[in-house]
From TrEMBL:
Keyword Transmembrane helix attributed: yes
Pfam families reported for this sequence: CitMHS_2 (PF16980)
Entry keyword annotation includes Transmembrane helix: yes
Residues spanning the membrane: 36-61, 68-88, 100-126, 138-157, 177-195, 223-242, 292-313, 325-347, 367-385, 406-428, 434-452
Keywords assigned by UniProt, alphabetized: Membrane, Transmembrane, Transmembrane helix
Protein name per UniProt: Transporter, UIT6 family
InterPro entries: CitMHS_2
Length: 476
């Protein structure tokens, strides 16, 4: 089904609603209601679905609805299972401890998935920092690292890589991406540490005193939730879902009509909710359904209005000159606003037509690397680039963290994430000594900014210490 450029306008309008309505005083409180979000999503998405069905592209709609079902079951089941796990005790919310949290998340993301790692760690991170005033940057970097860039090393880390495995990419091939994973995540962790040092020094003295008073030994409540979480992750990796290709071809057997993977995940989530530690879930984690309902309401509209955008991309894709850098830029840029899984598939099929050796699953390896990096890391650029992004934001909102708006978050990614990704491209992909030199300079600028933030934090701490000493002098 051919579509015109204007068919993407409902998708753009939905993004505009997500970005703008929370900022307008007259619509801010109205937009907070999930029913309003669902209404807007359906008003924009249902006409698109009807248009596609009447145009003979009903299979596209069915694919979108099945993918939405699979997406919401995955995110929802992980949300429920992780909601019954609580890291009891309280460590000091220092820059060192926060950075360790994010580093652990970067390692976990590749093995339990970015969604699983993000849902498992966001609550402990928020609980650790609950006495601090400046927490926004910590959640933003959690999205950068744990919900996206950490999930590069295995096909379990992010859906695009899993689709690549289904298309013949060997499971162990993604381990070879470790230099990119290490470079990006190390720079992001250093950047975060510097920024958190600066923000920590700005904390009111009473906030740090309260945080220090609450320090207790760490432990785990709701450990059974880890078993349910493991079942969900194993289901993602090894249990098939409904076989849409067999269904559409008319050759599907009865088992191929059943979404076995989602049945197992829902069963595990239900068992976690029913038999898990209720004290950990409701008293400690203060579990509510609001975050997952918000994601469900918005993403049904995103999946439906995204259909013409993906169709239009397929129509014009052959005009895009493909090399390592252009493939990374287009895949990453489009993955930031479209679902990164179908974006990956679209460019995977295109890259298979480009000559080059050696080849992996029929694609030149250099192009497959660029494609994988763009799909995984580009998903961090906006709230909707990857499923866990919005989930992390929603959980943080429910914990009264002042999260940036859609546009505000893009501002964060432009100034804190994109310089790191650009340095990676220049150092690892660009040809020519001058480009490599530019990559080195950009890396030094990123490190220099982290150093300046650390120095600002040190000076602020010294100023506070000096002020306290003067206040305590006799006669003052």
């Amino acid at each position: 089904m051919a579509v015109a450029w204007w068919s993407i306008l409902p998708f753009v309008l939905l993004l505009a609603c997500i970005a703008v309505l929370p900022l307008i005083p007259a619509t801010e409180k109205i937009w907070d209601r999930n029913l309003v979000k669902l209404t807007v999503a359906l008003v924009l998405g249902v006409p698109i679905a009807v248009w596609f069905v009447l145009g003979g592209a009903g299979s596209v709609v069915s694919h979108a609805l099945v993918e939405y079902f699979q997406f919401i079951v995955l995110v929802g089941s992980l949300f429920v299972a992780s909601g019954g796990i609580f890291l009891i005790g309280d460590i000091k919310a220092t820059p060192k401890n926060n950075t360790i949290f994010l580093a652990i998340g970067a390692a976990l993301a590749s093995f339990i998935g970015t969604t699983g790692a993000a849902m498992l760690l966001i609550r402990p991170i928020l609980n650790t920092n609950q006495d601090r005033r400046h927490r926004t940057h910590t959640v933003v970097y959690t999205i950068f690292i744990v919900a996206n860039c950490g999930g590069l090393l295995t096909p379990l880390g992010d859906p695009p890589l899993f689709l690549g495995m289904l298309r013949g990419v060997p499971f162990e091939w993604t381990f070879g991406l470790w230099p990119y994973w290490l470079f990006v995540n190390t720079l992001l962790l250093i950047s975060f540490y510097g920024l958190d040092r600066k923000m920590y020094a700005k904390e009111p003295a009473e906030a740090l005193e309260t945080d220090a008073k609450h320090v207790t030994k760490l432990g785990l409540r709701g450990a059974s939730g880890l078993a349910f979480l493991a079942v969900i992750i194993i289901a993602v990796a090894f249990i098939p879902s409904i076989d849409m290709h067999a269904v559409e071809s008319g050759h599907a057997s009865l088992p191929q009509y059943v979404p076995w993977r989602e049945v197992v995940m829902l069963t595990a989530a239900f068992a976690s909710f029913l038999f898990g530690d209720h004290g950990a879930r409701f008293n400690l984690n203060k579990f509510t359904w609001t975050p997952i309902l918000e994601v469900g309401a918005l993403f049904i509209g995103i999946f439906l209005t995204m259909m013409p955008a993906l169709a239009y991309l397929g129509q014009i894709a052959h005009r895009i000159p493909l090399n390592e850098i252009s493939l990374f830029v287009f895949t990453g840029g489009l993955s930031s606003v479209l679902d990164n899984a179908p974006t990956y598939v679209t460019f995977f099929e295109m890259a298979a037509q480009v000559p080059g050796e050696p080849r992996v699953a029929g694609v030149a390896e250099t192009l497959l690397i660029a494609l994988s990096l763009g799909a995984v890391m580009g998903g961090a650029i906006t709230y909707i680039g990857n499923g866990p992004n919005f989930m992390v934001k929603a959980v943080a909102d429910s914990a009264d963290v002042e999260m940036p708006s859609f546009g505000g978050y893009v501002g964060w990614s432009m100034t804190h994430l994109l310089p790191v990704l650009a340095a990676m491209v220049l150092l690892f992909m660009a040809d020519g000594g001058w480009w490599k030199l530019l990559g080195v300079l950009l890396t030094l600028l990123v490190l220099g900014r982290a150093g300046l933030n650390m120095e600002a934090g040190r000076l602020e701490a010294e100023k506070k210490t000096g002020s306290n000493d003067r206040t305590n002098e006799p006669g003052e």
